[in-house]
């Protein structure tokens, strides 16, 4: 098992949390309005004309103009036509540093030739899908099982959302318990029962529009990094059907936006063993980014089930899967003749040859090139530079990283929480998070105009394609942006 990781030094969680607590109590600092207008006119309106025209047409066909929230940015989404290494290119020919990384999976950088050539070879020989077994289904599953310490078996699925759904079904079958407790604020896909407590801890059903409230009868959330709160929920569930599973993002909700203590995951594991619940690690982002052995290898924890996402197809379509211990994965057995009940899991396009060959060679290349360690070094350099700039301009911003997952919190939108013992505060909290989210979009527009693509203006993933010179150039662009940040005037 590869024991190299992208995390060189674990963040001081207490210090980061204190900084974030302070940030959300302060007035908002954001890009100056005159500078924002300048970016809008001189960059977006003048240099992104083809993007604007295409998005205006797309809005007549596609709700909102884009197919995914990550593709939206202020003042209008850009149309990207080329991805190569650390760079993205839009339809107008503008070049950008890519810190979105397709939401996290492209640890090698975008469109690596070594993987692309194998995909083209596969397409020439077989085509993308046959509906039948292909050798790379086995090769990919074996590679994942050899890399991740607690994955004895692996079942390929179409997405991380599907894998989360399958994990819950397996947990209920295996334990014969009803309830699922998830980490508050964490995102485990958009299925009905897991659209609970997302983004803001304590939000319960308030963000799950279109989902009947009764769906959440057996779903609960606990406050991140709070083992006492988790045990209270586990103890309570003993009186109401017990707990089938505890589901967490191991670095903290939203890819560690609210980071957790180093020993937190071991504490969760101990509570799961005490109360007979399965431990589910959502490693959609962390697997093969924190290390070849995932976050579970880094923390030294043994989850029963592990959810995988986009990286297992190398950023190609058909990207998700569920792995775990043999005694639980048996509930996902295909075919007939099994003596035990099986989880209802389907997907005609799951484990198609294209996805599996791309995933297999991606993981091989990540390991061969040392992309995980390189991306971690570049993230350390980026974070240190951002912290220096924050100090230079005396801004209240917070920058930290967990390996190659970097956070730049300018308004602290994701750090708010809802306390249901004080329900009168809920409307003002939701209003404040909405107001701050708007300023995240404005900051994100400034980053984009300076050639930096981020995730929602607050998160950045590095890849093995980055070099020190690139990171230094990026920091120079952030320097220009921060020089135009000021206290937002209240209207």
List the helices and strands and how they pair.
Blueprint: H1 13-23, E1 29-31, H2 33-47, H3 49-58, E2 80-84, E3 87-90, E4 95-98, H4 113-125, H5 135-147, E5 153-157, H6 160-175, E6 179-183, E7 219-222, H7 227-237, E8 243-248, H8 253-256, H9 264-275, E9 278-282, H10 294-299, E10 305-308, E11 320-324, H11 326-329, H12 353-369, H13 371-392, E12 398-402, E13 405-409, H14 426-449, E14 452-453, E15 459-461, H15 468-482, E16 485-487
Parallel strand pairs: 4-14, 6-7, 6-8, 8-9, 9-10
Antiparallel strand pairs: 1-16, 2-3, 3-4, 5-11, 10-11, 12-13, 13-15
Helix pairs in contact: 2-14, 4-12, 5-12, 7-9, 13-15
Task: Give a written overview of the molecule.
With 491 residues, the chain is α/β, with parallel strands linked by helices. It has two domains: 13-110 and 370-487, Aspartate Aminotransferase, domain 1, CATH 3.90.1150; 113-368, Type I PLP-dependent aspartate aminotransferase-like (Major domain) (Aspartate Aminotransferase, domain 2), CATH 3.40.640. It is built from 15 helices and 16 strands. It has a seven-stranded mixed sheet with strand order 5-11-10-9-8-6-7, sandwiched between helices. The chain has a four-stranded mixed sheet with strand order 2-3-4-14. Strands 12-13-15 form a three-stranded antiparallel sheet, with helices on both faces.
**CATH class designation of the largest domain:** Alpha Beta
The proportion of residues in beta strands is 5-15%
Derived from helix and strand composition plus strand pairing, the structural class reads alpha/beta
Quaternary structure of the protein? single chain
Termini, distance in Å? 57 Å
CATH architecture of the largest domain: 3-Layer(aba) Sandwich
Classified in CATH, the superfamily of the largest domain is Type I PLP-dependent aspartate aminotransferase-like (Major domain)
Q: Tell me, rounded to a whole number, the average pLDDT.
A: 92
Any idea what the radius of gyration is?
22 Å
- Indicate the CATH topology of the largest domain: Aspartate Aminotransferase, domain 2
User: What ranges have pLDDT less than 50 throughout 5 or more consecutive residues?
Assistant: none
Helix content: 25-40%
Count of DSSP H/I helices = 15
């Amino acid at each position: 098992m590869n024991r190299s990781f992208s995390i060189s030094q674990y963040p001081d969680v207490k210090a980061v949390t204190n900084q974030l607590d302070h940030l959300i109590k302060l007035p908002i600092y954001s890009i100056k309005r005159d500078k924002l207008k300048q970016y809008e006119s001189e960059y977006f309106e003048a240099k992104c004309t083809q993007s604007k025209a295409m998005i205006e047409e797309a809005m007549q066909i596609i709700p909102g103009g884009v197919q995914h929230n990550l593709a939206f940015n202020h003042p209008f989404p850009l149309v990207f036509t080329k991805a190569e290494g650390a760079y993205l290119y839009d339809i107008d020919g503008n070049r950008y540093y890519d810190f979105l990384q397709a939401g996290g999976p492209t640890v090698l950088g975008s469109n690596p030739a070594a993987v692309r050539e194998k995909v083209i070879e596969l397409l020439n020989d077989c085509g993308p899908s046959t509906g039948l077994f292909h050798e790379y289904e086995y090769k990919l599953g074996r590679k994942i099982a050899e890399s991740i310490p607690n994955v004895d078996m692996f079942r390929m699925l179409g997405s991380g959302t599907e894998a989360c759904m399958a994990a819950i079904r397996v947990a209920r079958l295996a334990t014969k318990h009803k309830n699922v407790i998830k980490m508050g604020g964490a995102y485990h896909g958009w299925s009905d029962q897991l659209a609970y407590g997302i983004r803001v801890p304590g939000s319960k059903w308030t963000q799950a529009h279109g989902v009947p409230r009764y769906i959440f009868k057996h779903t609960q959330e606990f406050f991140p990094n709070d083992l006492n709160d988790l045990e209270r929920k586990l103890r309570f569930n003993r009186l109401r059907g017990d707990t089938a599973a505890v589901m967490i993002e191991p670095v903290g909700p939203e890819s560690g936006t609210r980071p957790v203590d180093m020993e937190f995951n071991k504490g969760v594991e101990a509570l799961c063993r005490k109360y007979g619940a399965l431990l589910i690690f959502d490693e959609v982002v962390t697997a093969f980014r924190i290390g070849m052995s995932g976050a579970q290898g880094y923390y030294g924890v043994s989850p029963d089930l592990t959810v995988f996402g986009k990286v297992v197809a190398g950023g190609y379509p058909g990207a998700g899967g569920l792995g775990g211990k043999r005694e639980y994965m048996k509930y996902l057995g295909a075919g007939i003749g099994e003596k035990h009940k099986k989880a209802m899991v389907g997907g005609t396009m799951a484990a198609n040859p294209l996805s599996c060959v791309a995933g297999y060679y991606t993981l091989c290349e990540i390991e061969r090139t040392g992309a995980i360690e390189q991306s971690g070094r570049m993230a350390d350099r980026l974070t240190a530079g951002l912290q220096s700039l924050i100090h230079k301009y005396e801004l209240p911003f917070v920058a930290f990283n967990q390996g190659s997952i970097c956070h730049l919190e300018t308004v602290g939108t994701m750090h708010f929480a809802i306390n249901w013992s004080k329900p009168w505060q809920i409307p003002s909290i939701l209003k404040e998070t909405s107001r701050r989210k708007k300023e995240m979009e404005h900051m994100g527009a400034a980053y984009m105009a300076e050639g930096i693509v981020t995730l929602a203006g607050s998160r950045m993933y590095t890849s093995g394609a980055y070099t020190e010179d690139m990171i230094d150039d990026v920091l120079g662009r952030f320097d220009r942006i921060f020089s135009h940040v000021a206290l937002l005037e209240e209207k």
